[in-house]
Amino acid sequence: MKYRTYTTSLLLLGAYLALPPSASGQSPRTVSNDSAVTAGPPIEVAEEHKPFLASAQAFVDAYAKRDSAAIGEMFTTDAEFLDEFGELTQGREAIITVFESVFRNTQTATIDEIAIERIRKITDRVVLEEGVIFAAESSDHVRTQSRYVALHTLGDDGKWRINSLKNLPASDVSRKEQLEQLAWLTGNWVNEDDNSVVHTTCHWSDDGNYLLRRFTVKTREGNEMSGVQRIGWDPARKKIRSWTFDSHGGFFSGLWTKHDKQWLLNSAGVTADGETVTATSAYTLHDAEMVTWQYRSLIVAGDVREDMEPITMVKRPPPPTRSNK
Q1: Are 8 and 191 in contact (CB under 8 A)?
Q2: Which region among 97-111, 188-202, 310-324 has the lowest average model confidence (pLDDT)?
Q3: Tell me: the pLDDT tens digits for 104-156?
Q4: If residue 202 lies in a helix (H) or strand (E), which one and from where to where?
Q5: Spatial CB neighbours of 319, under 8 Å, sequence gap ≥ 6
Q6: Three-class SS state of 91
Q7: Domain of 243?
Q8: Number of domains, the chain
Q9: Coil, strand, or helix at residue 274?
Q10: Does residue 52 contact residue 152 with C-beta atoms inside 8 Å?
Q11: Which H or E run includes 111?
Q12: Residues 184 and 148 in one domain
């Protein structure tokens, strides 16, 4: 029991992952190297901005469903779309045809997030929106980012639609921005089950190139283990990668692949006793405060273990500040 608890705890700690934040819950923000370093209180969204945040999320959802008609409904009948390759498409029906072609030819492409940076009212019926689109050719490709400018007009039916959309050429996302997919990890977390309690803390490195985590594991039998983890971007494999070392002398490394609304981790390592361990794990983020984790296969020294029940991890609130009064 002691061995199994420590092994699964290490695999757990080696692979916390989550989904990129959706556009629906965001306020306009600037993409910067400091945007994910500290998690602040929820930001109030101005009422007049909510239709555009909802539209951004609707676009992400429609793209994931390969629903070209739904995307077309977001444009006016006489809309113009200038894509990142400089191709101009005019009219809603022609825009629908373009996306039908895109979905036929790139069945694995994803739009992970639309980050709105600026919303500016031109008139009562015209609004300018600027931001960044984070996308990827597939789950095995590096994320890219491209800036966009959209001009929305208010229709007679009371709905805002895109009258003009311009996408600029895409570029690779920096290592820091790749890691921002895991920005929710920062802070304090706890996982408790019948066998053990795991506490973790996480923060960004000073240079912004890594997420640094420390953990402690305490079993019901009174055994303890601690360790450190460094999560970074592997530029050779174009993957997020982590390295974990425990106080007993074991170590693990892992690579992640995004699949639909989950992250799959392929990890391998060696225990302090020299036994090899490999596992494939799945992580699902439910909200900013809770994630469930489950391994689907675990092989220890050639012995295949049964899949475990999902484990729930919750974020601990910060300690209360002491009043000076």
Answers
A1: no
A2: 310-324
A3: 988 888 888 898 999 999 999 999 999 999 888 776 566 788 999 999 999 99
A4: strand 196-204
A5: none
A6: coil
A7: 2-19+177-315
A8: 2
A9: coil
A10: yes
A11: strand 110-123
A12: no
